[in-house]
Amino acid sequence: MKYCFEKIAVLPNAQKDAELIYTKKLLSHLEGKYLVLVQKEFDFLAKEGFVSVADDKEFYSCDLILVLGGDGTILRAAANAARASTPIMGINLGRLGYIAELETEDIPHISEILSGELETESRTMLEVSVVRDGQKVLDGELALNDAAVVRASGLGVVEVELFCNGNAVYKYRGDGLIASSATGSSAYSMSAGGPVMDTGLDCISITPICAHSLRCRPIVFSGDSTFEIKCKADPDHAKLSLDGEETCDLSDGDTVIVKKSKYRTKLVRAGEHSFCSILYRKMSDI
């Protein structure tokens, strides 16, 4: 399918792109073809009539977001982009770049790529809330990859009880528990021994982290499931992490609720890619 992009947002990663060399190279190949938006922290890149500074609402409501960085940079943009229903195309500056579509050598050809045949993949996101003493202390946060209840620091274990659609599943003792989307199955969940799932599947996996049990195994559930993870933790001993970012500390009696979100992340692909080909290309040499 051919798309007509007019307004494109560019999201750099100053840590991975030293002196923004690749960002500036990308802008030079977009000049004269699109109206480009950057956020306020990158206002020094703005040029009259070509690159403009935008607030978050305008930035994420454009036709396309080009993200330079690794998968982590894409994950940080995913929630705002999903709420605005704006597609993302990643340019990989990291080591793996499993979600990113392009590499740095594709930057000189970006105009041809954007004017060519493109496909859009719609990825399931997780919606996560935390209930404490009957009140929501976290309400409807989004994650593309995973939500993890993990040990915060020190020795000892995290104790949690998992419920699916109100039914008790298992009591876990260990370093934590990961609820993962199909997209996130190749990230933290995989490193903890969870299954790698085709990104087109509508499912959520639950993977224990270093469980103190000989019987504890990862489980894959229907994507329509709602999970309650009830915590038994000393103060400051457990925390909730969304897509690898620490989100909040958890206390004894807190309940983490995880379910499929109504929002979805749209990833732009330059042509067709099978799940197996991407998995082999990105993962086989790790």
What does this 3D model show about the protein?
With 286 residues, the chain is of the alpha/beta class. The protein has helices at 21-30, 56-59, 71-83, 110-114, 188-191, 275-283, and strands at 7-11, 35-38, 51-53, 64-69, 88-92, 102-103, 119-132, 135-143, 146-151, 158-164, 167-174, 176-181, 203-209, 219-222, 226-232, 238-242, 245-250, 255-269. It has a 6-stranded parallel sheet, sandwiched between helices. The two termini are 33 Å apart. 40% of the residues are buried. The mean pLDDT is 92.
Summarize this structure as a short list of keywords or feature phrases.
single chain, about 290 residues, alpha/beta, six-stranded parallel sheet, six-stranded antiparallel sheet, 6 helices, 18 strands, about 15% helix, elongated
Pairing-aware structural class of the strands and helices? Answer: alpha/beta
Strand portion? 35-45%
CA-based shape? elongated
Mean pLDDT: 92
Query: Considering DSSP H and I runs of 4 or more, what fraction of the residues is helical?
Result: 10-25%
Distance, first to last CA: 33 Å
Task: Report the uncertain regions.
Answer: none
Order of helices and strands: EHEEHEHEEHEEEEEEHEEEEEEH
Q: Which assembly state applies to the chains in this document?
A: single chain
Largest sheet: 6 strands, parallel
**Strand order within the widest beta sheet:** 3-2-1-4-5-6
Rg estimate, integer Å: 20 Å
Kindly state the number of beta strands: 18
